[in-house]
Specification:
alpha+beta, Pdz3 Domain, 2-enoyl-CoA Hydratase, Chain A, domain 1, 3 domains, six-stranded antiparallel beta sheet
Length: 473
C-alpha cells in the first residue's frame, strides 16, 4: 500500500519535516504545506525527449565545476546536489532526502525526534513558521505561528537552501541554536536562544472542561494518535458518568501528519446516516498519474453518540488537520470555529531511491468530501473567533460573562426554596470567576465552549419538544 503525505515542511528536531502531513507505508512517509505546481503545470501533451545537446550541457557543467571551482569537489556531492537541485526547482515541498533526513523522517512518524520543535516552510526566501510544536524548546521560548526566521546562528537564511537551513537547526540534545525572527507588528527582529532537546510528542491531550463538556487537543497526526484519542474519549465518558454532552477538538497549530490517521480520526465521529451524504468519502486526491488517485471512505462509528462537536482551528492548522476539519464540516458533524486554516492541500509521496535515500515528491492535491480544494484556500470557519487577549479581568464585572438569572434581579418573586439565594449567588460567582480565568488565558477556547454549550442546549430542547409531541399524539 502506498503512503501519501499531505504536507508542509517542518523542523521538528530540525529535520526537513517542517510541517508535514503524510503516511508511511512502502512508498511514502510524510510532509505538509502549500503548492500549486500541479495545477499550474499540467502534463505536456507530447513526451519531451532530451536532445544530445541537453545532455552535453549537463555533463559539461560537471566538467567545468570539477576543473575550475576554487576547491576540489567530490563526485558524489555533485551528484547529490544535482538531484537536490532538480527537486528544489519543482515546488517548496519536493525534496531530496539524504541518509540522515530519510532516517529522521521515519523516526518522526513515531512521535520522537531531536531538535527545537518547529514546523516551517519556505516563503520569500526565508523560513515561515507554520507552528511551534507543543511543549518543545521553540514553543516554550515563545516562537509563534507566522513568524519568519531570517537568520540561524547569525547566518542569513536567504543565503541557504531550505534543506541547509533545516540542517542548521538540527543538532544534538543540549546544544544551543540562535534564531532571529521577524514578527508582524514588531518593529525590530526578535532573537531566540534555544537549546535543542529530544522531542517526544504526546499527540493527544484531554480534560473535562465543565459539567460534561470534554476537550481534546490533537497536536499532530501520528501512528498512535487514533488509539490515544479513543482512550481519551473513553476517559472523558467515565469522568462524566457515561454521558459526554459535547466535545471540543482543538487543532490549533496542528501542522498535519499522517493522512491515514486523519481519516481514522474523522471516522470516529461519523455515523452511517451522516456518511451517506457523500458516499462515505472522507478525503480523496487527484494527480497526474493513476497511482496518485486515492479515496478514503469511512466506516460508521460515533464515539460520542451524536453529541455536538466544535472544532477549533487557526492559521497554523494545516494539511491533515484540514482534512479532518473539512470532512466534519462537509458532513455537518461539527461547527468549525477560530481562524481560516493554513491552506496546505498538496500531497507528498516519499519514493525510496535505495535503502538509505529517497525523494519526497508532490504527487497530488487532496479534496474534502464535497469536492472542495484546500490548496492555497484553507478551511474557512463557520464562526470566526480571533485570538484576542483579555489582559485584566480583575476589575471587570464578572457577571457579564454569564447570563443574568432571575434570583439576581431586584425584587424577584420567591419560588420553591430548595437552595438559598446566597448559595446560588455564590455558585454563579464561582462559575463567572472560572469563565473569567478561561477567557483571560485562552479567549478562543472560552468562546468555543460557549458555542458548544449552546449547541448542546439546542439539542436538548429539540429532544424535549419531540418527546412532548410524541406524548400528545
Amino acid at each position: 500500500m502506498k503512503r501519501l503525505l499531505p504536507g508542509t515542511v517542518a523542523v521538528w528536531f530540525g529535520v526537513f519535516l517542517l510541517g508535514l502531513s503524510f503516511s508511511v507505508p512502502v512508498y511514502a512517509v510524510k510532509n505538509n504545506e502549500v503548492n500549486d505546481a500541479l495545477s499550474a503545470n499540467p502534463a505536456p501533451t507530447e513526451k519531451q525527449v532530451l536532445s544530445d545537446s541537453d545532455i552535453s550541457r549537463f555533463t559539461n557543467a560537471i566538467t567545468q565545476i570539477k576543473e575550475f571551482y576554487v576547491k576540489n569537489i567530490d563526485d558524489k556531492k555533485l551528484l547529490e546536489d544535482a538531484i537536490r537541485g532538480m527537486l528544489t526547482g519543482l515546488d517548496p515541498h519536493s525534496e531530496y532526502l539524504d541518509e540522515d533526513s530519510y532516517k529522521t523522517l521515519l523516526m518522526a512518524t513515531n512521535g520522537e525526534f531531536a531538535g527545537v520543535g518547529i514546523e516551517v516552510t519556505g516563503e520569500f526566501g526565508v523560513l515561515k513558521v507554520v507552528s511551534p510544536i507543543d511543549d518543545t524548546p521553540a514553543a516554550k521560548a515563545g516562537v509563534k505561528s507566522g513568524d519568519y526566521i531570517v537568520a540561524i546562528d547569525g547566518k542569513q537564511v536567504s543565503d541557504m537552501t531550505l534543506s541547509e537551513a533545516v540542517d542548521k537547526m538540527r543538532g544534538k540534545k543540549g546544544t544551543p541554536v540562535a534564531l532571529t525572527v521577524i514578527r508582524k507588528g514588531e518593529k525590530n527582529p526578535i532573537a531566540f536562544k534555544l537549546t535543542r532537546d529530544t522531542i517526544r510528542m504526546v499527540s493527544v491531550k484531554s480534560n473535562m472542561m465543565d459539567n460534561g463538556f470534554g476537550y481534546v487537543r490533537i497536536s499532530q497526526f501520528q501512528e498512535p494518535t487514533t488509539e490515544l484519542l479513543i482512550t481519551a474519549v473513553e476517559n472523558l465518558k467515565k469522568s462524566s458518568g457515561g454521558n459526554v454532552k459535547g466535545l471540543i477538538i482543538d487543532l490549533r497549530n496542528n501542522p498535519g501528519g499522517l493522512l491515514e490517521t486523519a481519516v481514522q480520526v474523522a471516522d470516529l465521529f461519523l455515523s452511517d446516516k451522516a456518511l451517506n451524504r457523500y458516499s462515505k468519502v472522507i478525503v480523496y486526491t487527484e494527480g497526474r498519474q493513476p497511482k496518485s488517485l486515492y479515496k478514503a471512505k469511512g466506516k460508521p462509528t460515533d464515539l460520542i453518540d451524536g453529541a455536538p462537536i466544535v472544532v477549533l482551528m487557526n492559521e497554523g492548522s494545516a494539511s491533515a488537520s484540514e482534512i479532518l476539519a473539512g470532512a466534519l464540516q462537509d458532513y455537518h458533524r461539527a461547527v468549525i470555529v477560530g481562524m481560516p486554516s493554513f491552506g496546505k492541500g498538496s500531497v507528498q509521496t516519499v519514493l525510496p531511491l535505495d535503502q538509505t535515500h529517497a525523494i519526497k515528491l508532490t504527487t497530488a492535491l487532496y479534496h474534502t468530501p464535497a469536492g472542495r480544494v484546500i490548496q492555497n484556500v484553507g478551511i474557512k470557519p463557520d464562526i470566526i473567533i480571533e485570538n484576542l487577549k483579555i489582559t485584566d479581568t480583575s476589575k471587570a464585572d464578572l457577571s457579564m460573562l454569564a447570563p443574568v438569572k432571575e434570583f439576581q434581579l431586584k425584587g424577584h418573586l420567591p419560588g420553591t426554596k430548595t437552595t438559598s439565594n446566597t448559595d446560588a449567588s455564590l455558585d454563579t460567582l464561582a462559575q463567572n470567576q472560572k469563565d473569567s480565568t478561561l477567557a483571560q488565558s485562552d479567549f478562543q477556547l472560552y468562546e468555543a465552549l460557549k458555542i458548544l454549550k449552546s449547541m448542546a442546549f439546542g439539542k436538548d430542547m429539540l429532544l424535549i419538544n419531540s418527546t412532548s409531541v410524541a406524548k400528545n399524539q
